[in-house]
Design a protein that fits this description.
This protein has 6 helices and 5 strands, in the order αβααααββαββ. By secondary structure, the chain is an alpha+beta fold. It has a single domain, classed as OB fold (Dihydrolipoamide Acetyltransferase, E2P) (Beta Barrel), CATH 2.40.50. A hairpin with a 2-residue loop joins β2 (65-69) and β3 (72-76). The chain is elongated. The termini are far apart.
């Protein structure tokens, strides 16, 4: 009897963990490279005013990108970094690029399924 209860409990716990890990989220915030985010004293202001030209510098691009939203920094995965670099190369926004990111969060990293720019017209 105890083994059955243990087996059922473990199965339910495993199912809850799997469900929680696969939950997709949408985060809207400012795009910033990890090099500049790591050295920022006031990350909120830095992210809102971060120049697109800085984010496209070689050292900044190779550091990867993150989204600062709701006073939290979410690092992008490899796919997200590629999408962010392409978006930065094509945007007309000169500073404070705002994005919407869809994906799953694991720790402080978001595994990106979709990344799009949020323009003033869509706010």
């Amino acid at each position: 009897m105890n083994r059955k209860i243990l087996a059922i409990t473990l199965s339910l716990l495993f199912a809850v963990i799997l469900y929680a890990q696969d939950k997709s989220v949408t985060i809207t915030g400012n795009l910033i490279d990890n090099a500049c985010a790591g050295s920022a004293k006031d990350l909120d202001t830095k992210a809102k005013n971060h120049p697109t030209s800085c984010a496209l510098m070689d050292s900044c691009e190779t550091s990867g990108y993150a989204v600062y939203a709701d006073h939290k920094l979410y690092k992008l995965d490899e796919k997200g970094n590629g999408s962010a670099a392409e978006l930065l190369k094509s945007t007309k926004t000169l500073k404070g690029v705002k994005v919407s990111v869809e994906g799953t969060v694991e720790g402080d990293t978001i595994h990106v399924t979709k990344l799009t720019e949020v323009t003033a017209a869509t706010n």
